[in-house]
UniProtKB/TrEMBL annotation:
InterPro entries membership: 2C_sensor_his_kinase, HATPase_C_sf, HATPase_dom, His_kinase_dom, HisK_dim/P_dom, HisK_dim/P_sf, Sig_transdc_His_kin-like_C
Alphabetized SUPFAM superfamilies for the sequence: ATPase domain of HSP90 chaperone/DNA topoisomerase II/histidine kinase, Homodimeric domain of signal transducing histidine kinase
GO MF, one example: phosphorelay sensor kinase activity
Transmembrane feature ranges: 12-31, 161-180
E.C. number(s) listed in UniProt: 2.7.13.3
This protein's UniProt keywords: ATP-binding, Cell membrane, Kinase, Membrane, Nucleotide-binding, Phosphoprotein, Transferase, Transmembrane, Transmembrane helix
Annotated Histidine kinase domain residues: 251-460
Cellular compartments annotated: Cell membrane
Keyword Phosphoprotein attached: yes
Catalytic activity: ATP + protein L-histidine = ADP + protein N-phospho-L-histidine
Protein name (database record): histidine kinase
Primary enzyme class: transferase
Length: 461
């Protein structure tokens, strides 16, 4: 289980890499040790030969000769001086020379190969070593010697190097492990604990992480997580408020529907009046009350989290646009805003008339309210027929939508385009159009005005 953790894997990889580095150091070190060992034997042989050459007749007693060879660690010594090869010291050899090594021009790869060949050799061989004399005391010096002492020295050196490598690996890995635990693993564990803690109660703002990491990358991660948690907490609070508001609206809509139904019954009696003014107003009043009742019923259905499927029926575009213009004109607070519906020339549309009325009415109302707060202007509504459906364009000459509203223009409570607005109008309109399989989009927005497009497809999609 430990090796599956970040700390365990890092510790294992650290040991492996450090050991690999030590092996890369070990190989040339062994070769270097062998060269130094043999070179030392040649230097001792040179000193022994110089001791012999210092005598009067270049002769020493057999006992002294044996002692010189033993101190040098060789079996015989050959010195080449002035193109002459002389056997300076020698002892009885019980075996022939098995291998000759020349240290003068050997490459690094050759020295490494010879070192490991010596370590892996099982026979007690006799080897000859050739090298250059120290300080120019001749052209060449050769010495024959038994190989087992060299092999034993190499293995002893190798064991010491491996032990030292193991100690260095353990110490290095431990230090790196502690450093990684301190600067990486612990902050990451803290990050994971914070995520779990926040997930238990995301509505509690006290559980939002406070960036503390000393590593730049982890600090950026904690900062990003903090922003996400803040945004999520705000969204959850907003959803809770929206749910509470939905419950309240459902209750109000229920009572309001009862009131409007009673009012609608009273308005029905007004139709029987003989007063010309009452007869002119009564149909419009009944039409408005009918729409209000339908809106309350739709709100109640929406509060039950049930989608209201559009009731597709043919209706006249001119009639719908005229109703919108008349209703919004009556709501004008002053005469500085002009609302005009361009002729649709008898165009019929197959859609839910009540829902499309609400969509167009919301768009016109938003434009009217924005222009009333400014210097007035003109609103144009135009219906068009396309090969694949119908379009309704709503254009105005107002001040345009504020930049802060563009990113969330169709989101409830976030896309409000005027001070004090809730942003529900465009959100509801977008949902109603999407229910028809269509699309509501903002085509233009500038200081010269804004333009919305409602596209409704033909058929059932």
């Amino acid at each position: 289980m430990f090796l599956r953790s970040l700390s365990g894997r890092f510790l294992l990889l650290t040991i492996i890499f450090v050991m690999l580095a030590e092996v890369l150091i070990f190989v040339p070190s062994v070769a270097r040790f062998r060269v130094d060992y043999l070179q030392e034997r040649l230097e001792r042989s040179q000193i022994a030969s110089l001791s012999l050459l210092a005598t009067a007749n270049d002769m020493v007693e057999p006992e002294l000769e044996a002692e010189l060879l033993e101190n040098a660690g060789v079996l015989n010594i050959v010195l080449r001086r002035n193109q002459m090869r002389e056997l300076i010291l020698s002892s009885p050899m019980t075996a022939m020379v098995d291998q000759t090594y020349d240290l003068r021009d050997a490459s690094a790869l050759t020295l490494i190969r010879d070192a490991f060949a010596t370590m892996l050799q099982h026979r007690d061989r006799v080897i000859r070593v050739m090298g250059a004399p120290v300080k120019g005391a001749g052209l060449l010096i050769e010495a024959a010697m038994h190989e087992p002492p060299l092999r034993a020295a190499l293995w002893d050196y190798g064991r010491r190097i491996l032990l030292l490598s193991a100690v260095i690996s353990v110490v290095t890995a431990s230090l790196l492990f502690l450093a990684v635990r301190r600067f990486m693993v612990r902050p990451m564990e803290r990050l994971v604990r914070q995520i779990k803690n926040y997930g238990d109660a995301p509505e509690d703002s006290r559980r939002i992480i406070q960036p503390k990491a000393t590593v730049a990358e982890l600090f950026e991660a904690e900062t990003a997580l903090q922003g996400m948690e803040i945004q999520l907490s705000q969204s959850l609070r907003q959803k809770e408020r929206l749910a509470a508001l939905g419950g309240a609206v459902s209750k109000i809509s229920h009572d309001l529907r009862n009131i409007l139904t009673t009012t609608q019954l009273l308005a029905d009696r007004m139709e029987s009046s003989h007063d010309p003014g009452v007869q002119k107003i009564a149909p419009k009043l009944l039409n408005s009350l009918s729409r209000a009742v339908n809106l309350c019923e739709s709100t109640l259905t929406y509060g039950k989290a049930q989608e209201v499927a559009p009731n597709r029926r043919p209706f006249a575009m001119d009639h719908l646009l005229a109703d919108v213009v008349e209703a919004e004109t009556l709501a004008l607070g002053n005469g500085t805003v002009e609302i005009v519906a361009l002729p649709a020339h008898g165009l019929d549309v197959v859609a839910d008339e009540e829902q499309i009325y609400r969509v167009v009415s919301n768009l016109v109302r938003n434009a009217r309210q924005a222009m009333e707060n400014a210097s007035g202007g003109r609103i144009e509504i135009e219906g068009r027929e396309q090969p694949d459906g119908w379009e309704i364009h709503v254009r105005d000459s107002g001040p345009g939508l504020p930049a802060k509203a563009l990113d969330n223009i169709f989101k409830p409570f976030e896309g409000n385009v005027r001070k004090g607005g809730t942003g529900l109008g465009l959100a509801i309109s977008e949902e109603l159009v999407a229910g028809h399989g269509g699309k509501l989009e903002l085509l233009e927005n500038s200081a010269k005005g804004a333009a919305f497009r409602v596209w409704l497809p033909r058929g059932e999609g």
